[in-house]
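Sanity check

After download, print the first record. It should look like this:
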Amino acid sequence: MNKLVATAAQAVADLPDGASIAVGGFGLCGVPQTLIRAVHDTGVSGLRLVSNNCGTDGRGLGILLEAGRVARVVASYVGENKEFARQYLAGELEVELIPQGTLAERLRAGGAGIPAFYTPAGVGTQIADGGLPWRYRADGSVAVASPARETREFQGRDYVLEQAITCDFALVHAALGDRHGNLVLRRSAANFNALAATAGRVTVAEVEQLVEPGELDPDRIHVPGVYVQRVVELTADQAADKPIERRTILERTTR
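Expected structure tokens:
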């Protein structure tokens, strides 16, 4: 089956207002930058994002935040995005912060068809007991707080029940891919991409290099094509667009 779509704009053209989207990436590494810009250009709003973080100011998912297109974010941390923090504290954005490993497992469970699971992460905290601020009011009071989760003891240890995450769409980035949707991820850019890909009902992958079916070593494929519905081949300039979140340069010294 040929899943190749000519442009990123065509690949996300049917994404509606209020859609939930799982997005790969960590910081600015392995982020589907081209697909995110294409979503921005559609003008959709009220989006509910699930991602490790929400990009940075002017980059990645930060583009959608700055445009006021996001209603809710499920993430592990705020990161370097000042606009993310401002909207959250001002009551403009609902944010569910989740331990990073729990977020990864919730996405993995969603892709595997597992509705919920027990984990020790968060036991004895507001993750389990409830009360974490999901949305503030403009005056700083809490408008929406997290609910308490079910806890249960197994072999003398307490665990908290976490529900799996599935989304309407998933946007991911891959180093290699074929038109059947098989994807190969590269090093640290793998991060949340495979997890997000499996959790989307419609998964769109941008690939740096498109190869013919059969050219990929089956043992190297990180995301089988069964999880991917649309593939977009990046241009050379798009593939080279890999910003560094915080650049540190060591000055050379002469001896």
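If your output differs, re-run the checksum step. Summary of this record's structure: The longest helix spans residues 100-112.
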